[in-house]
């Protein structure tokens, strides 16, 4: 997605060895115009796929996922990282280890929102080590859903996430693929969409 790549080049900042900061348009402040375009690109790709739900994980996944769901006219569900008092239904859970934060969290989705009739597209803002995506896939498989793919805004292709997701047989569709960083500049490779 050319406009996304241009925006990363313009506003992204490389932090240390392996982190791309995009908090001015994606992970903290949000650019709705860019998000709408992201929604349209994924919706165009999947408009005939018979999707029934978009699934993501809080917090930053919620933003692109909501725009994709809006374009397709289907609900979006986000996995929660902490249980709250209103979550009284049966929960589907998966343990997700964060290499960045060095902690394991249990993510959860109420069982009532997913069924064997669902065909799901997973959407997330970043694909790094793939643990969040694998956790979501595990929950969706437990619920008996069909998983049509994993849609990613920014994939860090030098980390293991894409290979780990593809090993499950589920295809990955990334709008921007980062090959690496060179002297503070982002080096891209050809994206999927
Ligand atoms: P993984 O899910 O692919 O295994 O990723 P990892 O454990 O390495 O990353 C944990 C968190 O850090 C995730 O957000 C992920 O989106 C984010 N992250 C990973 N690499 C980058 C990066 O280069 N830039 C930015 N901005 N974020 C990155 P999270 O903990 O779920 O956070 P949030 O969505 O609640 O903010």
TrEMBL record:
It catalyses: XMP + diphosphate = xanthine + 5-phospho-alpha-D-ribose 1-diphosphate. SUPFAM superfamilies: PRTase-like. 5-phospho-alpha-D-ribose 1-diphosphate binds at residues 128-132. This is Xanthine phosphoribosyltransferase. NCBIfam families: PRK09219.1, XPRTase. Homodimer. The lineage of its organism: Bacteria, Bacillati, Bacillota, Bacilli, Lactobacillales. Pfam families: Pribosyltran. One of its GO terms (cellular component) is cytoplasm. Pathway: Purine metabolism; XMP biosynthesis via salvage pathway; XMP from xanthine: step 1/1. Its main location: cytoplasm. Its EC number is 2.4.2.22. GO terms for biological process: purine ribonucleoside salvage; xanthine metabolic process; XMP salvage. Residues 32-157 form the Phosphoribosyltransferase domain. It comes from Pseudolactococcus plantarum. HAMAP family: XPRTase (MF_01184). The gene is xpt. Xanthine binds at residues 20, 27, 156. GO terms for molecular function: xanthine phosphoribosyltransferase activity. Converts the preformed base xanthine, a product of nucleic acid breakdown, to xanthosine 5'-monophosphate (XMP), so it can be reused for RNA or DNA synthesis.
